[in-house]
Amino acid sequence: MNSESWDGRYGGSELVWGSGPNRFLVDEVGDLAPGVALDVACGEGRNAIWLAERGWRVVGVDFSPVGLDKARRLAAERGVEVEWVVGDLATWEPAGSYGLVVVMYLHLPPDLRRRVLARMAASVAAGGTMLVVGHALANLADGHGGPQDPEVLYGPEDVADDLAGLEIERAELVRRAVSTADGQAAAIDVLVRGHRA
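The structure assignment produced for this chain is given below.
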């Protein structure tokens, strides 16, 4: 999907993903000491805002101006500041280094994914952490929701391989409960956490 498609998706008055943070973000980084964070493909900003509320200085980048406008409004309502950047990850370069880099549900063709994740991994500061969460390829057959194009899905080993220079602390499939019209279902996600010594 391109930025115009996401602008259309974010164009409604309601938040597409809600205002609370992703639960894997909370579980994986909630205990880290605040520093400077980068939220990649931040959409409407819920994760960046949650980090800012915990004392992080956050840069949120996304290619949807409509999504970022909603993020600005939500941040203002919550009384926090985030630096919002309109940027296409195919070409956007991080400025500086970060104690935390978060990439949540970014789905790109494999070659572009490898380039983007490698570039983001390179921006992790010494002692810093990178967290990648996304829909797993296994979700197509055994899970619920997410993109239905196998080209943009992946496994834990794919993401771990993309994070050159980081020590991989965790790379696995995780299940996430989702509510559907037919009741509860499970989505299968990839969760990879890396650290730079």
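Interim note for the steering committee: The radius of gyration is 16 Å. Residues 3-11+20-195 form a domain with the Rossmann fold fold (CATH 3.40.50.150).
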